[in-house]
Design brief:
This protein has eight helices and seven strands; from the N terminus they run ββαβααβαβααβαβα. By secondary structure, it is α/β, with parallel strands linked by helices. α3 (85-105) packs across α4. The chain is globular.
Length: 264
């Protein structure tokens, strides 16, 4: 397997979408799945449209290496792509560049909403990404992990799969991920919330075990886990349920915030 180390910077086919009025209230990134996935997959596209139109966010999606017009080798030609190194590196780079561009475009913005999202393998990449402390203009991130590949993670990540699980566990407990970037000095950054949305029929072998572990580590009280009845990994006609669950979660969080801030 060749075509360059997975940490090499390559040109990725990128789509940046602002709400119609051109004045976004925040930023969202969404990474797609593997094995033929792209940024037009229904779970990615529907979520992007919802966050852009209903939540008034700037939404950034991109085709992974070797997909569409993106450069680089794909998972079949590059071992670093197969085990996720490239996907994580690319997500981190896309996030830094997108945050920098947002701040340049809206220099007076503060408390900017931030959403780190992914579908399938893209959920692994999102879960392993942390917003840099170099951008204090942004509020703590929301994480939306759709169809996190619990049962396939050992196949995708091989020897790194344990670290991928621990990266998400650390988001909800505030510590415990050995690959946390050095700039955080061992302390996980604050998060606004972590939502996992999984189809009923993709939760086969280890899903129940891992979700129980994840729930037991939710010391930050930021985790919501949803299983959608009748849905499979590709989602098919159930894909709109992803948006329904995300919308329900965000509305609940808004109500909770209003109650906390209500004068007493």
């Amino acid at each position: 397997m060749g075509q360059g180390p997975s940490h090499d910077v390559v040109q990725l086919e990128t789509r940046v979408e602002d709400p119609k009025d051109g004045s976004p209230k925040g930023l969202a990134l969404i990474a797609h799945g593997r094995l033929g996935g792209n940024f037009d997959q229904p779970p990615v596209r529907l979520l992007a449209e919802y966050l852009r139109d209903e939540r008034q966010l700037r939404v950034v999606t991109w085709n992974a290496r070797g997909i569409g017009n993106s450069e680089g080798g794909n998972e079949w030609t590059n071992f670093g792509v197969w085990i996720g190194d490239a996907g994580i590196n690319d997500y981190d780079r896309m996030l830094r560049e997108s945050m920098s561009k947002y701040v340049d475009d809206f220099p007076d913005a503060q408390g900017i909403e931030l959403f780190l999202c992914g579908y399938s393998a893209g959920a692994v990449f999102a879960g392993c990404t942390r917003p840099s402390l170099s951008f204090p203009q942004f509020a703590p991130a929301h994480y939306i992990l759709v169809s996190y590949p619990v049962d396939l993670n050992p196949l995708i990540g091989l020897h790194k799969s344990g670290s991928y699980y621990r990266s998400v566990e650390a988001l909800v407990q505030g510590h415990g991920w050995e690959n946390l970037p050095a700039e955080f000095h061992g302390r996980e950054p604050d998060v606004t919330g972590v939502l996992t949305v999984t189809g009923e029929w993709e939760a086969v072998l280890f899903y129940g075990m891992w979700t129980s572990i994840l729930g037991s580590k939710n010391s930050r009280n930021v985790l919501e886990q949803v299983s959608v009845p009748g849905a499979v990994h590709s989602w098919d006609d159930k894909a709109p349920r992803i948006v329904e669950e995300v919308d329900k979660w965000l509305r609940t969080k808004e109500v909770d915030k209003w109650i906390r801030n209500f004068p007493r």
